[in-house]
Task: inverse folding
């Protein structure tokens, strides 16, 4: 490599290195790291699941500037153990129940390190044909596992692409839908374009709309209600869209969600698509978390009506054993994406692209450079197989049912929204749960906030919260790969213990 | 984990698995993979550097759908060897000279697998404090290595963030600059906003402007000339901006480049910033490739004047031993980014954020979820040290000088643009290079296209091309980690041999 030849600065320095990719040194250090990570998984329950460090802790521990001379991997790993691990919130811990899972697996890990090892930059077919072709293949595989209509698959003239996160995917589809609409009604209508979601839609939609230049005043968050289980009501959508049209605005994009982040609410895809169709509105279905479950026949009905949508996403890095990041986006009309996102600089021109026989994924996403993400999804699909993947998802749902039962059996608690998948939303009440809290919202919220803080500060389990319809709610999302039934039972015990303490300490209301 | 317990489908199936993150199985398979990748590096020169497969090759080799039952890692790795590797273009090969390097290293790899192992989702400080804090620290470290003005560092109230690619970074800065400008002049001016670059600026700018909703007709690519070495001329910028202002338009964003993709041209940062300042235009400096070299004192002058810019990027995944993806973005005013990109959903509310003592990187980028990218940059900085990193970069520049000399010594060839770093742009001529080609542009371009095709099809080396000022040019970018002087000398021999053949086969002009 010539690259790290002796410089006069380093002459006679015993730490001088020869080749940053020397295969034998790579092998030595690589094995060391595998053991380090395997040990981490082995010991993961000994760490507090939510990191308890204070803001600024690390600055006090690390030097002011980068070292001039090389340091050994042994030294660095000691620092990882001493300084980094205490500052990590252990998403892989079996006691992790916050947000949504980030379900790692051996296969996902191996796929990631294979693609890191090859380190190809697959912006177009030509730059590494296998990266593009494997992606097309696994996206059709997974699309079929989900029983997506053929129109979403390459074999039906649609197709799938792996992006980093749902935020990127929504931004790409918004840009495509926006340009398609402006193309029809004239670019001067930009200011009139309206985006729709519910008050439960992920903030990714608002952010994507903002980045895409949609005017803030044209971003609609349609109110949902508890009586509708926080799903977006098609009639509310129709009324809102109609009013906008009457006001001279141009509706163009709806994001419907299957499994919202707060409570896993379900927007009814079919009826919403019918409304959208009447107004020529692009429908994106965000099933970031719950989409994975739809490979099980018993959950597939949640995306019924998907044939009326234009695009669909799920995050394989959430609940599908594929390491971060891996968002699966399918579209029925790739040309709409390509029209908005393609560029053809001279330095990328090549025969394969000119032949039009290949997919150039750079035109399906925001970024030019792209990692070989298909590798990890391929390894997950093959290493576990459809059967095991279904079992994996079902086992989490089963554990969530158990947890839900435990909550329901303690009359100090109430389950706050239907449990559709493996997320249980609940709260504690200062009195039996058949008495209304309507006049005591704030103290009840405070009680739950205190309870959650006390649980999380214990480091024994980590759950997160949300506020829906004014109520502060604790979210228990089951899905960490290492979680077993015993962890769920223990988590519930931890909650009960902390609730006992809260009740003793406080005299509420 | 309960997760992969027996389903009736899998009962009595010997392939049934127990735990997708079982530490011992992880260890066994992990070690296997490390050897697989180490062997790949060991044998990398035995593969044709540019993949020679035909479009659609992989579909013929893989099954129609995902397997129902699990497959062993041994089977999968055999398939990687048999089916995937032939379809890979070997960016890590020492004979890879195309586009820009994707310089892998043991430290970069180890950092990536550590962060994959932890698999944390560091959207905000709270979700994994170490991920955020280490990022702030290494961004200040690297900023100081580049001698960036303090205003770009956290210690000077600016700051850095790791994104995936420059495309994302430019989009974020365009959105920030756009909203800042609209805030001043009113949102109805959206249609009037103008973006500036040169005809050599990366297509990332055009794409970002398009995604951000800037009107196509307001995207300016200012012409550069060979006499200016394809750098953007400040006077041309001033004239263009002034004309736009006079036409009632609103200039707001300039992307200046240090080391353009086609020829490594340098836009003069200082003088361009002065023009921009007069018109209140945000300046982003894109040093995706060449920025790395600026850690060497002798190259630092290329970013002189950076104190007048608003944002600066380099891709550590290009020429800084850090695996894809790792774009370093620094800004002088993080609040401008945050104003455009922040969201505050209930499910992410937490004490640390409320305290305002922490950085929440979700508000500095497009996506919410984010990988722990700082880990790999930290490992690269520590494992090699400033001294070795400089040597690494210098060794490539030295090899590029050698290559340039070889080209210049063969009077059938000409070097087409100044070699500022480790990229040499050249072409072959059908007659001695002191005779003008002005009247024979097409046949000369055809000759070079044929030559490059023939070189690349040999599989011995891989170079890429561009077109500048009407001339088709071959690009030789030296920077693969494994490249040594002998590879460069051999590459030149390959070119000469193929040129000999082209000359024999064709009678040109």
Result:
């Amino acid at each position: 490599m010539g690259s790290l030849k002796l410089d006069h600065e380093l002459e006679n320095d015993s730490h001088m290195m020869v080749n940053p990719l020397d295969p034998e040194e790579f092998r030595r250090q690589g094995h060391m790291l595998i053991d380090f990570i395997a040990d981490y998984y082995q010991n993961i329950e000994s760490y507090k699941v939510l990191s308890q460090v204070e803001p600024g802790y690390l600055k006090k521990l690390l030097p002011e500037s980068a070292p001039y001379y090389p340091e050994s991997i042994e030294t660095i790993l000691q620092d990882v153990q001493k300084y980094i691990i205490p500052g990590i919130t252990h998403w892989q811990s079996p006691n992790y129940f916050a947000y949504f899972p980030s379900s790692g697996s051996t296969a996902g890990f191996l796929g990631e390190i294979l693609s890191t090892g090859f380190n190809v930059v697959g912006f177009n077919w030509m730059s590494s044909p296998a990266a593009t072709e494997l992606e097309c293949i696994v996206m059709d595989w997974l699309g079929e596992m989900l029983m997506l209509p053929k129109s979403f698959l390459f074999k039906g003239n649609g197709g799938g692409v792996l992006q980093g996160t749902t935020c990127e995917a929504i931004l790409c589809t918004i840009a495509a839908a926006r340009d398609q609409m402006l193309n029809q009604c004239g670019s001067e209508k930009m200011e009139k374009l309206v985006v729709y979601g519910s008050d439960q839609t992920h903030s990714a939609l608002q952010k994507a709309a903002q980045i895409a230049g949609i005017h803030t005043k044209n971003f609609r968050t349609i109110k949902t209600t508890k009586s509708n289980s926080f799903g977006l009501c098609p009639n509310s959508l129709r009324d809102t869209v109609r009013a906008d049209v009457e006001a001279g605005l141009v509706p163009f994009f709806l994001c419907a969600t299957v499994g919202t982040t707060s409570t896993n609410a379900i927007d009814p895809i079919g009826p919403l698509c019918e409304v959208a169709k009447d107004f020529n509105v692009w429908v994106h279905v965000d099933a970031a978390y719950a989409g994975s479950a739809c490979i099980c026949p018993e959950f597939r009905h949640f995306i019924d009506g998907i044939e009326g949508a234009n695009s669909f996403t799920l995050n394989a890095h959430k609940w599908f054993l594929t390491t971060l990041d891996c968002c699966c986006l399918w579209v029925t009309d790739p040309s709409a994406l390509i029209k908005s996102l393609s560029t053809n600089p001279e330095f990328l021109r090549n025969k394969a692209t000119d032949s039009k026989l290949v997919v150039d994924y750079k035109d399906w996403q925001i970024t030019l450079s792209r990692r070989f993400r298909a590798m990890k999804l391929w390894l997950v699909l093959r290493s576990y197989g459809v059967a095991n993947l279904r079992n994996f998802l079902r086992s989490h749902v089963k554990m969530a049912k158990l947890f839900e039962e435990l909550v329901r059996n303690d009359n100090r608690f109430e389950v706050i929204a239907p449990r559709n998948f493996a997320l249980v939303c609940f709260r504690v009440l200062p009195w039996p749960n058949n008495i209304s809290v309507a006049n005591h919202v704030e103290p009840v919220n405070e009680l739950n906030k205190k309870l959650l803080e006390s649980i999380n500060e214990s480091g024994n389990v980590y759950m997160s919260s949300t506020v829906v319809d004014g109520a502060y709610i604790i979210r228990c999302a089951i899905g960490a790969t290492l979680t077993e039934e015993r962890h769920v039972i223990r988590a519930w015990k931890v909650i009960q213990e902390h609730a006992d303490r809260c009740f003793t300490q406080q005299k509420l209301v």
